[in-house]
Amino acid sequence: MEEITSFMLCDSTRMVQTPSGSEMQIVNPTVTLMPAFIPCIFSFAISVGIRGIKLENDNFVSVTIESPAGEVIHEINRSPLPRNLGNAEGVPIEEAGFLMNLDVRNLELHEEGRYKFKLNLNDAPAFYHDIPVYAKKKK
Known about the structure:
The protein is mostly beta strands and 139 residues long.
């Protein structure tokens, strides 16, 4: 059974070279998106951990972000997931998973409030998470 193991909002994600190879770096993680003002066009990233998916099969993911009013403002339809990513030695296949990073650029935000992130795996609803969005208060 698939399960979402982590959800992180951040400014961006990037691959960095380390002595042990390439590693993903999450830049400026946060729990609330805080643009300078609203309405605006805003960019950010979302990192989602998924465990229990059978990566030897063909799988796909669909993602939507809805405004507080319920309007779909960002959508990814049936994007294929990579197959056979490899498994950490000693980890049972049912515990294997992967980290998916979504780069959301130039998203129009027209109001403050709780936006909704929805993720479907293979056309089945798998996960949703609120994304609080509030303008930075001026000092």
